[in-house]
Amino acid sequence: CSRAGCGLPATTTLNWRNPKIHTADRVKVWLACDDHADYLRDFLEARNFPVVVAKFGVEVTVVPDAVRPGGMA
Predict the structure, then answer these.
(1) Do 11 and 33 contact (CB within 8 A), yes or no?
(2) Where are the alpha helices (DSSP H) in 1-73?
(3) First vs last C-alpha separation in the chain
(4) CA–CA dist 33, 7 (Å, integer)
(5) Phi, psi for residue 56 in degrees, rounded to 5
(6) Contact predicate 41/30, CB 8 Å
């Protein structure tokens, strides 16, 4: 899990980008356990970064500008 200090296994990927500097095909990935997926998604969305949430192992190749809040791939 990408949450600081967490050692639990990831179950979810948070696929995101900074739209001010990245195009839709530049996907950054954070891993999250069940306990921290919502926290990490909220952190990114609070900064107006588009986020696509997917199950661990599902590849996301594009993060569009208009992603519905909490969007699952």
Answers:
(1) yes
(2) 37-46
(3) 19
(4) 9
(5) -55, 130
(6) no
Find, among 14, 11, 55, the residue nearest to 33 by Cα: 11
> Residues 6 or more apart from 9 whose CB is under 8 A from it?
1, 33
Position of tokens 């990935």? 29
pLDDT digits (tens, 9 = 90+) for 18-64: 999 999 899 999 999 999 999 999 999 999 999 999 999 999 999 99
CA distances from 63 to 5, 13, 31 (A): 27, 13, 16
Distance separating alpha carbons of residues 34 and 32, to the nearest angstrom: 7
Residue 14's closest CA among 25, 68, 42, 6?
A: 42
Question: How many alpha carbons fall within 13 Å on the CB side of residue 31?
Answer: 10
Strand partners, 55: 12
